[in-house]
Amino acid sequence: MSNPDLRICFVGDSFVNGTGDSTLLGWTGRVCQFASQRGVPLTYYNLGVRRETSADIGVRWQFEVMARLPEGCDGRVVFSFGANDTTWEQGGVRVKTSDSLRHTGMILLVAKRQYPVLMVSPPAIADEAQNERIAELVGYQRQICEGFEIPYLDVFTPLRRSPVWMAEVRSGDGAHPNAAGYAELAQLVLSWPAWWKLE
């Protein structure tokens, strides 16, 4: 690693934040903890905000990332969002699919011009109707990332089948797991070759 000032911003929603994890690590803390234990000197910033949609993230991400990745550092950005877009409220989803994809495309287009970028899909929750909407969004997000040549990790599919993740989500608030669930998500990221290239 040529630049010892490695900084990674994780931008997204409550799943990036690690909501529900009694250890307060979430998946982002776990993957960075593992990297640190391997001797990788990094600074990580958790920029996850509960209930935020792609529209909300589109408004704030650039200012927040710029403040944390100044000129001269080895800055990287990992995005993960979308579940809140698919939440059904007041007779419709919070963000229409077409708008969600437009926001995602703009975010990634700008980010890729400035930083190495990865994207992690939204995970599964306890509501199967919403899971169908998330699954559709994951497919579209993957296509956008492929078009921009940005690595994309689908954690939704394996977590939807995971007894640990789903049990913790159901026993919690219906969306967020506890520590064991986030540990499973972290392991998916740690098993992803693109993560190690980012590091």
TrEMBL record:
InterPro entries: SGNH_hydro, SGNH_hydro_sf. It comes from the Bacteria. SUPFAM superfamilies: SGNH hydrolase. Residues 10-183 form the SGNH hydrolase-type esterase domain. Pfam families: Lipase_GDSL_2. This is Lipase.
